[in-house]
Design brief:
The structure is a single chain. The protein has a 15-stranded parallel β-sheet that branches. The chain is globular and about 60 Å long. The protein contains one helix and 17 strands. About 15% of the residues lie in helices and about 50% in strands. The chain is mainly β and about 170 residues long. About 25% of the residues are buried. It starts with 14 loop residues before the first helix and ends with a strand. It has one domain. Strand 1 and strand 2 form a beta hairpin.
Length: about 170
């Protein structure tokens, strides 16, 4: 695990000059992180992202988060999250609100309705919600209602609630 911390003191008259540099540097860091985390054998994953919003551990966001790029949540969000790419909820992350995204990957805690194409509830995750998704992988704890096309439930997962799925696989079979 790594954290990137940056602190700047900038005069308001200089913000227009320094903001493009910060954006370029942030995009470069996100690109490097993406290469480390989301590529295997130098083959890009489908959900490549060039920029991301990171809500760090200890941070609290109250209100909706809406955007086009990916978001990585290590802190707490109390409000809806709507992005056109990937939402990652880290082990320390908490979302109390609905999430709508192309893909959601969680090892943290989510309480709210989820709408996405692909959902991965990883080991250690706790999710209490209503889910409408095309494909789902559950390795953590889930409680709620689920409507999905394809479902894979790991042998260590805990699922409580109603389920409607076209295909179901459990424990690797």
């Amino acid at each position: 695990m790594f954290h990137i911390v940056c602190s700047l003191s900038v005069k308001s008259s200089e913000i227009d000059n320094i903001l493009p540099l910060i954006c370029r540097y942030s995009a470069y860091i996100c690109h490097k992180v993406e290469k480390m985390l989301f590529r295997k054998n130098n083959q890009p994953k489908e959900n490549y992202f060039k920029a991301a919003t990171i809500i760090t551990e200890g941070s609290h966001c109250i209100g909706s988060v809406i955007g086009n790029d990916s978001i990585h949540i290590e802190g707490e969000v109390r409000g809806d999250v709507k992005v056109n790419n990937v939402v990652i909820v880290a082990k320390s992350g908490v979302v109390v609100g609905d999430i709508k995204a192309k893909q959601i990957i969680s090892s943290g805690t989510i309480r709210g309705d989820l709408l996405c194409d692909t959902l991965e509830l990883l080991e250690g995750s706790h999710t209490c919600s209503k889910i409408k998704v095309n494909k789902i992988l559950i390795k953590g704890d889930f409680e709620g209602d689920m409507l999905c096309g394809g479902l894979f439930v790991d042998e260590h997962a805990h699922v409580r609630g109603t389920l409607q799925a076209k295909t179901v696989a459990a424990g690797g079979t």
